[in-house]
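Researcher: Last one for today. Full complex below.
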Amino acid sequence: MEMVTVVPRQRLEGLELLGGPTVPLHPPHRASLPLWLALLLKRQRRANILPPPWFHPTALTSILDIERNKTDQFSPPPPLPPPATGEATTSPPFLLSSTADAPDGALPYHWLELGEILLDAAPDDVVDPDTVRRLMRDLREIRMAKIRAGVVVLDGSGMVGLKGVGGMEVGEGRAFISGVVDGLRKIGTSREQALREREVEEGDDAYDPVENGDEMDL
Amino acid sequence: MGSYYDIDAILTDAQKVPCTFELEVPGLGYLDGNSGGDMKKGTRVELPLWLGEMLAVSRQLGTSPLVTLDLPTALSPRVINALKADPRTVDLRSLAPHFYDLGARILELFEEEEMVEVLSETFKKRAAEIADHAHNPRGALGESADFLRGLDETERQLFRAAHDSAKSMKSWMGEMKK
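Model: Here's the assembly. Have a good evening.
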């Protein structure tokens, strides 16, 4: 459940939702709402969505520069918050990464999904939507090209570094990457077998003295 | 991998490998187009992989094997050298429709350290190329058409997987626009 920041235009009492109560809306105070509710209010013209800071042309441009400069890795994910003191620990998909006070220099886990949804549902709230749309497309293409190029460094056991890759991108690349890994493993089966046999043999050699020692004791 | 009814595994096993008979077998001449005659010692015939493997491997202790296997032409040193030079230009499909599966099966029977390396490198390099083609269809024309026609069965599945992902992505994006 991604939370976004809205600027309400009308008052709304707090709602008791399955995901927890929402804050009461008092214009013009900002509030964080689940994305679906924000979209609903936006469609009814009862609120405006405040896009997250990373969804600004300048932020996206700087991220795109990072992607262009580092050809072998992705732009880093948003920094993790300091470890929570309570039992509530959160990791990327559950972090508040798309509210107005989210970090601005990094793409969060659901950047592609959220970006597309915002561009579609609330283009008038986004700063310079055409530029943002172009930047999003550039980012997507350059990152997908990296994922595809990553298979060249694969071996049957290892994995390309996917740090910073979003959920949608993982989903898009999954069928292809797992196919490549399967193929490589199939080709490498005989080598793996040989390695394992050698290990077993060496293992036997190493154990031999011990076994002999045991027999001596008996 | 390896289901009994896996059609790709069955087709792989049906690919021919050259075998040389080490013994004379009465009445087996029909394999060599000499019906009714005997199979002479030292005759080379192309047998399906499953049959050749059976005859070559399942021997009783102390007897010489019935046939000896050779590398199939699809995995001959000439092909391996071509793959080493440039994996992208080799038409794997004309060599063997199940090229990598055949390779994996052959590698179980032969000790070929180098071939494992070459096949893995080939697969990786061609996989990257396949992904590019699947995401940016440049039409069924020119160089890319030749490359795509030369894909073996494993690579075709890979192409389809990559292409389907891209297509689902596009349709999701398209739905958003509505």
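The mean pLDDT of chain B is 82. Chain B has eight helices and three strands.
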